[in-house]
């Protein structure tokens, strides 16, 4: 089992929030579930750019954090859907705020990415 060499400092609210929703794909997974795409196979179809193994890993993490829970239906074949816990629901306004900020600033960020020169530690004048 992997043991961290440097302990995580989770006494800071921002560190906790970033642990839960940080990373490349967790917000997208949560948005899928928010929109009703709740079955793992449907999430995989929605997020074709991401390996199913990665999606499953993030779903498991979100479940371990208590953000999602897995509902297993007694059907044949078995049907599984992910749903938000109350604490997970409380994250949805945070994600909406982040999406709004991203939409308002995406051109600015893209422009800076396009003009950044590695090794100079500064942006080119516009």
Description of the molecule:
- This is Helix-turn-helix transcriptional regulator.
- Pfam families: HxlR.
- Keywords: DNA-binding, Transcription, Transcription regulation.
- Residues 12-110 form the HTH hxlR-type domain.
- By secondary structure, the chain is mainly alpha-helical.
- The protein has a single domain (13-115), classed as Winged helix-like DNA-binding domain superfamily/Winged helix DNA-binding domain (Arc Repressor Mutant, subunit A, Orthogonal Bundle), CATH 1.10.10.
- It is 52% helix and 10% strand.
- The chain has six helices and two strands, in the order ααααββαα.
- The chain has helices spanning 13-21, 26-34, 40-46, 52-64, 86-89, 92-115; strands at residues 68-73, 79-84.
- Strands 1-2 form a two-stranded antiparallel sheet.
- The longest helix is centred in the last third of the chain and has 24 residues, at 92-115.
- The mean pLDDT is 88.
- Give the helix level as a range of percent: 40-55%
What is the architecture at the second tier of CATH?
Answer: Orthogonal Bundle
Distance between the termini: 50 Å
Order of helices and strands: HHHHEEHH
Low-confidence stretches: none
CATH topology title: Arc Repressor Mutant, subunit A
Q: How many structural domains?
A: 1
Strand order of the largest sheet: 1-2
Strand fraction band?
5-15%
What integer is the average pLDDT? 88
Q: Oligomerization state of this entry?
A: single chain
The top-level CATH class is Mainly Alpha
**Which radius of gyration do the C-alpha atoms yield?**
18 Å
CATH superfamily: Winged helix-like DNA-binding domain superfamily/Winged helix DNA-binding domain
Largest sheet: 2 strands, antiparallel
Total DSSP helices: 6
- Structural class comes to mainly alpha
> What is the total tally of β strands?
2
- Overall morphology: globular
Domain HTH hxlR-type: 12-110
InterPro entries: HTH_HxlR, WH-like_DNA-bd_sf, WH_DNA-bd_sf
Protein name: Helix-turn-helix transcriptional regulator
Keywords: DNA-binding, Transcription, Transcription regulation
């Amino acid at each position: 089992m992997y043991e961290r060499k440097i302990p995580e400092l989770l006494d800071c609210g921002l560190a906790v929030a970033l642990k839960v929703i940080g990373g490349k794909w967790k917000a997208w997974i949560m948005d899928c579930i928010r929109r009703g795409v709740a079955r793992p196979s449907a999430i995989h179809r929605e997020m074709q750019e991401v390996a199913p193994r990665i999606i499953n890993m993030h779903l498991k993490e979100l479940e371990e954090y208590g953000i999602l829970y897995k509902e297993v239906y007694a059907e044949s074949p078995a049907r599984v859907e992910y749903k938000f816990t109350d604490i997970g629901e409380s994250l949805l306004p945070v994600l909406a705020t982040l999406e709004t900020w991203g939409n308002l600033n995406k051109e600015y960020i893209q422009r800076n990415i396009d003009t950044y020169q590695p090794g100079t530690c500064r942006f080119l004048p516009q």
